Amino acid sequence: MKLRRSPQTSQILHSLLCSPQEWRHGYEMSLNTGLKSGTLYPILIRLAERQLLETKWEDPKNGRPPRHLYRLTQRGIEVARSSVIESQPLRTKEPAFGM
After folding, report:
1. pLDDT (tens digit, 0 to 9) for every residue of the chain, 99 residues total?
2. Predicted structure pTM score
3. 76: domain range?
4. Domain contains 83
């Protein structure tokens, strides 16, 4: 199954790749990426459907309702690394002056 790597998807993958084993809330990822929930959550759902993300519910704390948590699977880490590499601009050698 081919993953569409929009700039927003790459941004989320890159954010998750910084700490791939750490569970993250969607709200935290929204703050880190600047993406609105209407963009973020559909991408998270697609990544989870493709088994690139693990999801679980957080236990309720201090009267707070449970929240969804996300982290990369091993396959997700590989795809995220590939996505980050592909999104890097190609660097070319600067021409030497005074030749």
Report:
1. 456 678 899 899 999 999 989 999 999 999 999 999 999 999 999 999 999 999 999 888 888 888 899 999 999 999 988 876 665 554 444 444 454
2. 0.78
3. 7-87
4. yes
Structure tokens that stand for 93 in this block: 């050698």
In a domain, 1, yes or no: no
Total domain count, the chain: 1
CATH assignment of the domain containing 16? 1.10.10.10
